[in-house]
Automatic annotation (TrEMBL):
Residues 460-534 form the tRNA synthetases class I (E and Q) anti-codon binding domain. This is Glutamine--tRNA ligase. Belongs to the class-I aminoacyl-tRNA synthetase family. GO terms for molecular function: ligase activity. Residues 30-338 form the Glutamyl/glutaminyl-tRNA synthetase class Ib catalytic domain. It comes from the Bacteria. Its EC number is 6.1.1.18. Keywords: Aminoacyl-tRNA synthetase, ATP-binding, Cytoplasm, Ligase, Nucleotide-binding, Protein biosynthesis. Residues 341-441 form the Glutamyl/glutaminyl-tRNA synthetase class Ib anti-codon binding domain. The keyword Nucleotide-binding applies.
């Protein structure tokens, strides 16, 4: 049971109320029902965390049920990706189910509805059916085939099943109420014919059930107690219940559909159709491109399961839709990686720094702390030499008092190393600085305990020894869209809001300790941000993806 000291959200309150009236704890069963026509995205993650979280809270089973009723769009690749994503998030499903497991039972029930005069075969075009359904302000008109005889309906439905009719020639509709104020109750389509190869049933079936007919009945077959859907399915609840009315055994548990509000994320899209267009048009490299809001994309970007689950928990479940700023998701991954990610030094925009009074040819191994947030993380050694690389923006030939980095005549500390002072520069023919010359205080070594090492200086710079620097490819990912709601304006194409700077690829220079890093290893590049090793890495070249900068750079743009 839930901890009574913790306030219940409205979903938990529904469950508690049902437990106090009609359900036993042993009857609780939840489900996550993805359609395998694309990869799961951050919106699905909230639903996953809700359903599996309830399963953990109430020690109840959670089924993973694939809604695989549209072979035109579904693929085994998507099934595998969905299972991988859920497992990666740390959840285990009780039973792996497929709507296609129930095709025979659904067909048998549909035949029973025909025999009871509650379903009929309609031979009109989809356009004619849509027109006859009317509008929210006008009642629908009955199909000319609504009163077909039971015998004729059974014969036609059997031919549809056997593939003896053309695609689109007939559909099976429920006979409910063409004057219902709920448009979904106006004789909804239950089956259509599709001559497509199904990823599990092959060509065994030529008719495929529609979502509304499949979903509630699948819940009933699996004895799911609570079927939680997003708010757009609220109008479907009446139809969900009507279909259940036709098949339920009063001695068995009857599922309940209840709805919660979708949480939309700024600067992203969660429409599978639009995400698929980004993939097919080449804007991104695939469903797992690190700019995509898919769970696979977030994983490749360097997000952790804990950061996504913490995000889902922090936004909670509600009854009204709202737009969550993506910075909130980024905050959660920063919080998690700050505790876990080892620190390393990498220079992304290098300029050469020469310490004039450091011995030529000498290499010194300095001790560096791996993560000050984790005492167990230990230390590593980094090589230090006379010639280093630092960030170009960390030096100014002339600077005001508020510039706390390196300039001529000013002291700064090199991280884990010594205090240096800027002395002079070398420039090329165009006036660009090619070398910065400085001197160091040999007694100021970090951690030595000497008086000089305790001297306070305001700036600390990261660096890499040039002779030991490891060239790496660094992919600087940013938000894919320039506006918070790229598909909010129906008059404008969302493709017009693509951020042209969503990916910049550069060569960086890393300390050699990262040479043996593996795919999905995560680091904090000190003073720069959090990065993850990409799967494109080879033994010859490491590739890093930027997860997030150390601070929210977009917040400054909006100030």
């Amino acid at each position: 049971m839930t901890n009574e000291a913790t306030p219940l959200n409205f979903i938990e309150q529904i469950i508690e109320d049902d437990l106090s009236k009609e359900y036993t704890k042993e009857q609780l069963c939840f489900r996550f029902p993805p359609e395998p026509n694309g990869y799961l995205h951050i919106g699905h993650a909230s639903s996953i965390c809700l359903n599996f979280g309830l399963g953990e809270r109430y020690s109840a089973p959670v089924n993973l049920r694939f809604d695989d009723t549209n072979p035109a769009k579904e693929e085994q690749e998507f099934v595998d990706a969905i299972k991988h994503d859920i497992s990666w998030l740390g959840y285990t499903w009780a039973t792996e189910c497929y709507a296609s497991d129930y095709f025979q039972q659904l067909y048998d029930w549909a035949v029973a509805l025909i025999k009871d005069g509650k379903a009929y075969v309609d031979s009109q075009t989809s356009e004619a059916i849509a027109e006859q359904k009317g509008t929210p302000n006008t009642v629908g008109k009955a199909s000319p085939y609504r009163n077909r005889s039971v015998a004729e309906n059974l014969e036609l439905f059997e031919k549809m099943k056997n593939g003896e009719t053309k695609e689109g020639e007939h559909v099976l509709r429920a006979k409910i109420n063409m004057e219902s104020p709920n448009m979904l109750m106006r004789d909804p389509v239950m089956y259509r014919t599709l001559f497509k190869n199904h990823h599990r049933t092959g060509t065994d079936w030529r008719i495929f059930p529609m979502y509304d007919w499949t979903h509630g009945e699948s819940d009933y077959i699996e004895q799911v107690s609570h079927s939680f859907c997003t708010l757009e399915f609220l109008p479907h609840r009446e139809l969900y219940d009507w279909f259940l009315d036709q098949v339920v055994d009063p001695k068995k548990l009857r599922p309940k559909q209840r709805e919660f509000a979708r949480r939309n994320l700024s600067h992203t899209l969660v429409s599978k159709r639009k995400l698929a267009h980004l993939v097919s048009s080449g804007v991104v490299t695939g469903w797992d491109d690190p700019r995509m809001p898919t769970i696979s994309g977030l994983r490749r970007r360097g997000y952790t399961p804990e950061s996504i689950k913490n995000f889902a928990e922090s936004i909670g479940v509600g009854k009204r839709e709202n737009l969550i700023d993506v910075s909130h998701l980024e905050f959660n991954v920063r919080e998690d990686l700050n505790k876990k990610a080892p620190r390393i030094m990498v220079v992304l925009d290098p300029v050469k720094l020469i310490i004039d009074n450091y011995p030529e040819g000498k290499t010194e191994m300095l001790e560096a702390e791996n993560n000050q947030e984790d005492e167990s993380a230990g230390f590593r050694e980094v090589p230090f030499s006379r010639e280093l690389l630092i960030e170009r923006e960390d030096f100014k030939e002339e600077a005001n008092r508020k510039f706390f980095r390196l300039t001529i005549g000013k002291e700064v500390r090199l991280k884990n190393a010594y205090i240096i002072k800027g002395e002079s520069v070398v420039k090329d023919a165009d006036g660009n600085i090619t070398e910065i010359h400085c001197t160091y205080d040999p007694d100021s070594k970090s951690g030595s305990g000497s008086e000089a090492s305790l001297r306070k200086v305001k700036g600390t710079l990261h660096w890499v020894s040039e002779p030991h620097a490891l060239p790496v490819e660094v992919r600087l990912y940013d938000r894919l869209f320039t506006v918070p709601s790229p598909d909010a304006d129906k008059e404008k194409d969302f493709m017009g809001f693509i951020n042209p700077d969503s990916l910049q690829t550069i060569t960086g220079y890393a300390e050699p300790s990262v040479a043996q890093s593996k795919s999905e290893d995560k680091f904090q590049f000190q003073r720069l941000g959090y990065f993850v090793v990409d799967r494109d890495s080879t033994s010859e070249k490491l590739v890093f993806n930027r997860t997030v900068p150390l601070r929210d750079s977009w917040a400054k743009l909006n100030e």
